[in-house]
Amino acid sequence: MSFRLRAMTLIFATLAGTAPMVSATVAAAAEKAVTFTSEEDAYVSQAGPDKPHNTATWLSVCTTPCDGANASERGAFIRFTVKDVPDNAVNVKMTLDVQSVRTTDTTLEVRPVTGKWSADTLTFNNRPAVGEAITTRKGLTAGGTAKLDVSSAFQGNGSYDFALTSPSGAHGVLHSSRATAGVGPKLSITYDTQAATPSGPLPFALPSTATLRASERKVFAHYFTPYPISLNNKAGADDYYTKNYLTPTGESGKHAAYGGLLRDRPVPRGVLAGDWQLADMKKEVQTAAAAGLDGFTVDVLSLSGAHWDRLQTLIKAADAVDPGFKIVLMPDMTSLKADAATLAASMAQLAAAKSVYRLADKRLVISPFKAEGQTAAWWQNFMKIMKDTHGITVAFVPVFLNFPSNASAFASISYGFSNWGNRSPEGQSGVASNIAKAHGLGKIWMQPVSVQDERPNQGIYDEADNTENLRVTWEKSIAEHADWVQLTTWNDFSEGTQFAPSVHNGGAYLDISSYYLTWLKTGKAPAIIRDTLYLTHRTQFAAARPTSGTQTKFMVPRSGAGTPRDTVEVLSFLTRNATVKASIGGAEKTYAGQAGIQAKTFPLAYGTNKASVGAVTVTSPWEVKKDFAVQDLQYHAVSSGRK
Question: Model confidence at 168, in pLDDT bands (50, 70, 90)?
């Protein structure tokens, strides 16, 4: 355990930022600006709850009590269409300009609109849902322009819908687009373009969120509620992960036989004030969204208790920071024992949230894990209850442990299919046939993409061959035209399958996946604009056993999941052919690196590993040792893009 604590201390200092976002170093260039006039705008009034106000030359905003005895709640809705902002725009500032009709005690709040609306039919009774306030402006001068900074809502070209509200007692009257020319609402955007190589962790320019989400191909990550960022809101050295999951003596020694429950953990943080669980969930949503993911498929382990509460908090977090980031409900049929009616009631309760995933036709996506745990007839009854009792039509996307054996029985009730998949390159031979079978039945296919799998408490692991399994599962998803992808998993640390930034991977696996998901969504491999190296290796030989400690149960390769190998891999993303230097356990190596993506492996050796190409260097903080306390067969990863 002493080695782990020293290593954790070292890596904590290097992981200040975890979201794979691209910043830019921009050469001197003129700032560019575009302005858009309101495409649609109108206000709603509680005084006339079914009356549209789509012809008025003003927009009225107030929250009762205001405006005397005839007070009524009012709110304005505005839509803009943004275009011609390039994908390489940086330093973007987006400003909403509104002009006051008269002087009032005005405080304006700008909120994102999350529902559909049209100015011609908009009324108080059918007004769409809105999110939390983006910005607030107090005080307006008659005839003056209020500039409200809404930069946080910028997601590239596309439609932007805003609601203008006000807190209790405030009242505002603004010009609409139907007033005198030039005084209606405007949306102004200023930006620079990248004129030099952008700096940041990624080897390519990640497209805007709007561009990625416009694709019909979706990428979700499987979220496992037992392992959020923090379990007890303590600093990393003293929190529950360190004290109970990462040590053989934790939780009264019940994990001693296999050396502790976990080998890796989420990146630690300090103590947070306020609702720390919600803050942590918001960060996870933001991290996943910044990597280009469309959402989380959330493992619904129970319908009450801590896991249910975390699920609801995660949905609340997505609603608050990014309603476009979707939560796919995945009832876990290995743990849920509820009858169909009880499960339907719980799913219907969650379905009210705007971030819970529905298709464009409003069908609610339900994607149960190990769907074959119940019969197709049972699920058909579940969907009937959802429709008849709760008014919800389900798009059923079952995830099977054995897809071929269940495809025919479930075909008539399913929108799509998926399987849980394997975690070794040797286990990916059936991907093409699975996708072809699903498409042949007229269904979409959600392909599992994975890094690795090691389970100390179960005594098994899959041989992932460094990043080969990750690359193979992504490449097959692209080549065979998977409709959706599920990263398995975001954070199941008990199975060692995490993509989430962690102590042992620092976000490297998520960064690599950002490249491939962009390829999947855009239909072409992104151009490599920055030389980037990823270094992966284990810290011990696969056949080695601890030289100290009390571990008695050891992991062995799962049958059919690959032959153990002891290698260090340098995965390079290069803009051109270049010489790559590597130091493997102190032994110097040199090879001809090829432009594009290339994986080069070397035999594992005791000591420190590093690699470089030109001025780009990467050094692993994880030393390969002969003496160690517990068996750990995860591949550790480090990126040259993350310092």
Answer: low
